[in-house]
Design brief:
This protein is α+β, with helices and mostly antiparallel strands. About 35% of the residues lie in helices and about 30% in strands. A hairpin with a 2-residue loop joins strand 3 and strand 4.
Length: about 140
Amino acid sequence: MTLTWRLAEKNDEAALINLWRDSVRATHDFLSETDQTTIEKNLPHYFEHVQLKVWQEENQLIGFSGTAEHSLEMLFLSPEYFGRGYGNQILQQLMEDDGITKIDVNEDNPRALRFYQKNGFKVASRSPLDDDGRPYPILHLEKA
């Protein structure tokens, strides 16, 4: 498994949004259809506020990540790559290269919470609403 990354470009946007949609449908069953549509429309704006990396293996799109300072703001994989070690490899590289020490995760996404806890993160605090004021509690994780 030779995973590489490159910085995202504007022409990657459609592919990243499609990957996000597939990933969210597989993992975020708690999101209402309306909220999912709203978030999807806002993705280009969110992308502008992070260092957006495209993760590939032999030019095959695996996923993408977005970081800001020492915080992982987004990490999404194509569902066909779930459970195959790619997420671990990406997270380890982001911790090493970008000094990631903080991650926010939806409380209603226990699979993601377990993934981050397995990688050494612990819940530091909780917010009852997401960053846009929607009723999706957020767990704020920090590297233990």
